[in-house]
Write a structure and sequence with these properties.
Length: 211
């Protein structure tokens, strides 16, 4: 039986996307069942993490109502999710020096599993891995993963010097644990990228008992 004996883990919610497939605007602020996707993500992760921060660029005041630290990318050029991960690792090192692990999560996934952190930490420890990533069905979700703060220097070098942007390309350098969740009754990593996805999420929220 797995117990929640995980090490302290900071959660970073990655909200840096431009939502082009939704005609612009912040995807996390779209509503499902009367609650924003971001509210749903926070509700899923708050009890699993030892604090949450939000990675977003631009005017951070748009997220003021969520009362979370909002941290902009520490590297220039909107370098994608890896830049958000690096920002969180830097923030943890500066503000939470006792925390060695950061969980990253996309803010367009309203149904994240309630055992996300404990299962990723358990698999990482069992495998002696430096990183862990979530999967469902036959698809991995590299944006949703567990990162070691000690790797922040190497990640910064990869981003700034090597111009690496693809998560899989960077994680391939390390021992990686992958944890797979079932896709029934719903895929916990369903992401709302389009207007049609939002409509589907409304239906799935009923199946999930999470309206």
């Amino acid at each position: 039986m797995m117990t929640d004996d995980r090490p302290p883990t900071l959660g970073v919610l990655l909200a840096g996307g431009l939502a082009r497939r939704m005609g612009g605007g912040d995807k996390p602020m779209k509503t499902i069942g009367g609650r924003t996707i971001l509210e749903r993500v926070i509700a899923r992760l708050a009890g699993q993490c030892d604090g949450l921060i939000l990675n977003a660029n631009g005017d951070t005041s748009r997220f003021a109502s969520f009362a979370l630290p909002v941290v902009s990318d520490t590297v220039e050029g909107f370098a994608g999710p890896l830049a958000g991960v690096l920002t969180a690792l830097d923030w943890a090192a500066a503000h939470r020096p006792g925390v060695e692990w950061v969980l990253s999560a996309a803010t367009d996934c309203p149904f994240l599993p309630r055992d996300l952190v404990v299962r990723l930490q358990h698999a990482r420890a069992e495998a002696g891995a430096q990183l862990a990533v979530a999967a469902s069905g036959d698809q991995t979700h590299p944006v949703i993963g567990l990162w070691n703060v000690a790797l922040r220097g190497e990640l910064r070098h990869a981003l700034v010097v090597e111009d690496i942007r693809k998560i899989d390309r960077w994680t391939a350098r390390y021992k990686l644990a992958t944890v797979t969740w079932p896709t029934t009754p719903i895929d916990p990593f369903f992401n709302a990228n389009t207007v049609e996805d939002i409509a589907e999420a409304e239906r799935l929220a009923g199946l999930d008992g999470d309206r």
